[in-house]
Amino acid sequence: MAPKVLVSDALSETAVEIFRDRGIEVDYRPALGRDREALAAAVADCDGLAIRSASKVTARLLAAAPRLRVIGRAGIGVDNVDVAEATRRGVIVMNTPFGNSITTAEHALAMMFAIARQIPEADASTRAGRWEKNRFMGVELFNKTLGVIGCGNIGSIVAARALGLHMKVLAYDPFLSEERATALGVARVELDELLARSDFITLHVPLTDKTRNILSAGALARTRRGVRIVNCARGGLIDEAALAAALASGQVAAAALDVFEVEPATDNPLFTLPNVVCTPHLGAATTEAQENVALQIAEQMADYLLTGAVQNALNMPSVTAEEAKVMGPWLRLAGYLGAFVGQATEEPVRAINLLCDGVVAEMNVAALAAAAIAGVMRATNPDVNMVSAPVVARDRGILLSTTRQEKAGVFDGYLKLTVVTDRLERSIAGTVFSDGKPRFIQIKGINIDAEIGRHMLYTTNADVPGIIGVLGTTMGRNGVNIANFTLGRTAPGEDAIALLYLDAPVPAKVLAELAATGLFRQIRPLEFEVA
């Protein structure tokens, strides 16, 4: 029986024909995504679901779709998909990570021009019959300084276009190397320097715990007075109340927003301010971009349903079905190693190496490396997947390498991930036991045997008496249950580590209590997407 795909949001006829031409049955119902009950009923007998942003793929919807094998998002963001639940149910989630880049970059530039010359307000005034030529005094972009927060795929395109306008470009991006910055023609700076020097600021980062309100009240106060700000990335990157106050005071001369903390944005204090330009999340809204991502997702889904090939999957590596049977646990391990390093490392990463030992050296090393790199990069960019992560890393000038070696230890095979920053080198190793469960076996050269859990706590300290007691009593006093507790040290009285597997995330209060003891060099809560 031919696979069946439900298209519940609008895709072009050309994209729909890709499915049909390859022998896939298509149920094309582009308005279905806004009716949750009807969508759940329609997807029940489908192998694939092609969506944009209107369809919400919830745990309830997935439960109603026992045949579903793949979800294809024509676009980048998958906020409307419960990826964790899809993974648990064995459903692949694909996106099109680079199809909207130029379109979004061009929209950011258009917004920059709009606030530089007050175009929307001048248009409204002229249409109202007022010829207020002297009222709308603008500024040139020529020779101004543009601060780009996030110089990845989209940010680097904006930077290149801005350089073509003869602007000076500063870039703040923890993953941007000096070599990559030089190649782009931008100056790599810290955030405070960017804020202080920029005439215009544009944001191109994902929304994470680290980037939320990156332009806070405090950050806005540190900007050059009269700065103009553009956000076509994600709502929540700017404290909107603080921005409104800064606009009213003149600290910020103007702002242009395509994204908002709450969307759809139908009532926002910024809407009433004359020096603000707002658009309804149009970053990807061009004919070319919408067509490109529609065609791309149709090809990807058809390839998977007919041949098993996987491209641009957020929860599945690009490996064949045969490889996946053997490599599954090792791929999960590689991701855990990367996630550990990514969460434990605050400095910009300059190099990533994955060593594959013994039986692992005969596997698809590229896929293992991609899983590890994705784990590292997701700490700051949750939108990357195992296909896009190596590209994103290289765009930031990170040196990527893999090493194969014959069996060199007690294990039949193991993986060792090493990252290098300007200040340090950090490594972690792991293996897969006969029960198929990944384990951490070495951190910082210290041998351990640690089960991997969803919520963990990593600490480093001098090897002195009382550490176990402090950790245990602090957790117990705050109602945090310890599922497993692993210790290791280099030698008596020297460096020591602890890795706790917990039943729940560590509250900030507990972290503060541990830090107040003065016993720990590093205290790092960790989260892993454990299958």
How many β strands by DSSP? 22
CATH architecture of the largest domain: 3-Layer(aba) Sandwich
Q: Going by CATH, what is the homologous superfamily of the largest domain? A: NAD(P)-binding Rossmann-like Domain
Mean pLDDT: 93
Q: Total helix count?
A: 17
Global shape: globular
Question: Explain this structure to me?
Answer:
- With 531 residues, the chain is α/β, with parallel strands linked by helices.
- It folds into four domains: 124 residues, NAD(P)-binding Rossmann-like Domain (Rossmann fold), CATH 3.40.50; 178 residues, NAD(P)-binding Rossmann-like Domain (Rossmann fold), CATH 3.40.50; 103 residues, 2-Layer Sandwich (60s Ribosomal Protein L30, Chain: A); 84 residues, 2-Layer Sandwich (Alpha-Beta Plaits).
- It is 34% helix and 24% strand.
- The chain has 17 helices and 22 strands.
- α1 packs parallel to α12, α5 packs across α7 and α14 crosses α15.
- The longest helix has 24 residues.
- The radius of gyration is 25 Å and the shape is globular.
- It starts with a strand and ends with a strand.
Briefly characterize the structure.
The chain is α/β, with parallel strands linked by helices and 531 residues long. The chain has helices spanning 13-21, 36-42, 59-63, 83-88, 101-117, 119-127, 153-164, 178-184, 191-197, 217-221, 240-249, 287-307, 321-344, 365-377, 388-395, 467-477, 508-516, and strands at residues 4-7, 25-28, 48-51, 70-73, 92-94, 145-149, 168-172, 187-188, 200-203, 227-231, 252-257, 276-278, 349-358, 399-405, 413-421, 425-432, 438-443, 446-451, 455-462, 482-489, 495-502, 520-527.
